[in-house]
Amino acid sequence: xxxxxxxxxxxxxxxxxxxxxxxxxxxxxxxxxxxxxxxxxxxxxxxxxxxxxxxxxxxxxxxxxxxxxxxxxxxxxxxxxxxxxxxxxxxxxxxxxxxxxxxxxxxxxxxxxxxxxxxxxxxxxxxxxxxxxxxxxxxxxxxxxxxxxxxxxxxxxxxxxxxxxxxxxxxxxxxxxxxxxxxxx
Length: 185
Fold this sequence. Notes:
- By secondary structure, the protein is mainly β.
- The chain has helices at about 30-35, 65, and strands at about 5-10, 45-55, 60, 70-75, 80-90, 95-100, 125-130, 140-150, 160-165, 175-180.
């Protein structure tokens, strides 16, 4: 129950360069579409991922790319309760974001949460569980083993990934990888 669906709404901004700019070659399909149907970049974009609560007061850890540029953030629990959330802090280099659930209740609501473990103590061959909301499906669970640690995949200055064969699909981003003690690693 501490794993949540994180959905976002972003007022779409012009994201592609003007034709002829040196940053990127013009997109002929976009140019064709815009010539016949007009500029459509003012439509809101929606995003979706996962997250998990790290304390009883509503702090949710997710990936930065899940909430990047969001104007609205919603958190949906497995029991269908939905809350607005606001960004507390983020770091694009580590792809981590912290959001807080904003509850309207006059009584302080206490949320289920997961404990953080020590990924340095994780061993190759150890079982892990990935929980998330892939493809918009609610709360799926996959199981696998740690295949390797310290993987460098060229993702940036903090490459040190845990490799697992637990299935991680689009929408799982931000969801926890849990060790056999029930701790997020």
